[in-house]
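Continuing the batch. This is chain 6 of the set; chains 1 through 5 are on the previous pages. Same settings as before, nothing changed between runs. Recording input and output for traceability.
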Amino acid sequence: MLKRLLAGIALLFTASGSAFADEPLKVTKVTDNVYAIVGPIDDRAYDNDGLNNNQAFIVTRDGVILIDSGASAVGAARIEKAIAGVSKAPVKWVINTGSQDHRWLGNGHFAGKGAEVIAFEGTVATQKKVAALQMDTLRKTLKDRFEGTQPVHATRLLKDSPTTLTLGGETLELRLTDAHFPADAMVWLPRQKVAVTGDLVYVDRMLGVHDTSSVKSAWTAWQELVKLNPVKVIPGHGEVCDMAKAKKDTGDYYAFLVNVIGKAAQDMAPLDEVIKANADRPEFKHLKHYDTWHKTVMSRTYLQFEGQ
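Output for chain 6:
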């Protein structure tokens, strides 16, 4: 009886794992040939393959351009399957907008199938600095679903921002933002007026600011994005949106961080008083993770501006 029960439990977990592996990723059509793969806004987990962010892809007459490759070989294979549901053309280019794990650790899967990986020199330099820690951390989270993942970097390294790239009649610009991690970037599609922002823009959830982030650089990059005036924004996290939504969830928060927290730091107001005075910001409470992230983000921003 006990053996049958244990066997049943094992079968249940096996079936659950198989079902999850076959679960399609969410693909959102943005324009005629531009698509977003929209991940959940929860934390990285075994059950989401670390794909708690967005990727994008552009279908051209000479193949597919993928923007960001996922957090693992398994996750990259799921991305490839999602693309195949739209186009049977191979992925020709993989562009990395950043060095956070789910932006690039799937590179090896696509490079192994002949795709060219492209990124700014600085992005790759940052990836190399953080690769070992990211690999160790994700291995603990993804367990067997991290097997086969290796840190593979871009072979085409870009220097100038913006850099214009063309494939199959489609033109894009890769622009540095230096927002979330050093040498992070966004992709601008001038014909479609679509911006793939990487971690410059978050919607539906609280903006992430880490010790590696630069609120000043992000604020500058946000203002450049406003000048581009995209019709559609594919954010780093959250649903595809227009600029009004991006401003509400990200732009207004950057403005608050710079003009309120940053100014207070420059004016040498005591940190604890600044945090207490701004702990309750109703205009941002709709964002997921507000309760756990808001005070930390303010503190990190204050320290960036302190004494400047």
